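[#protein-structures] MJ: dropping Mitochondrial import receptor subunit TOM9-2-like here for a structure pass
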Amino acid sequence: MASQPRRGGVSLPERRAAKSDSNGSIISKLSGSPIVSRGRQAASDAVLVTRKLLKSTGKAAWIAGTTFLILVVPLIIEMDREQQMNELELQQASLLGTPPQPQK
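AK: finished. structure tokens for Mitochondrial import receptor subunit TOM9-2-like:
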């Protein structure tokens, strides 16, 4: 009974389903192809490598920044103090009238 056509109305669900299946099958064939699968895998691998690279770059930047703050900044401050002390000594010597001593 289900296979008998109806009288009185035009209904073609078989053709509509076949048409949508043909479109779906092309998309499913393309999405299931080995080229697309390899492309997706390559993109996934690229994302993974990029994340690891960014993470390691961030760690390296953190290490470099903290090392600079701990070792280099105090050295710069100390060198600036030394230069200011030398200039102060030169000013005091010139005010007192003694000849300036040659710099080492």
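MJ: nice. The CA atoms of residues 85 and 91 lie 10 Å apart.
AK: one more thing. The two ends are 113 Å apart (CA to CA).
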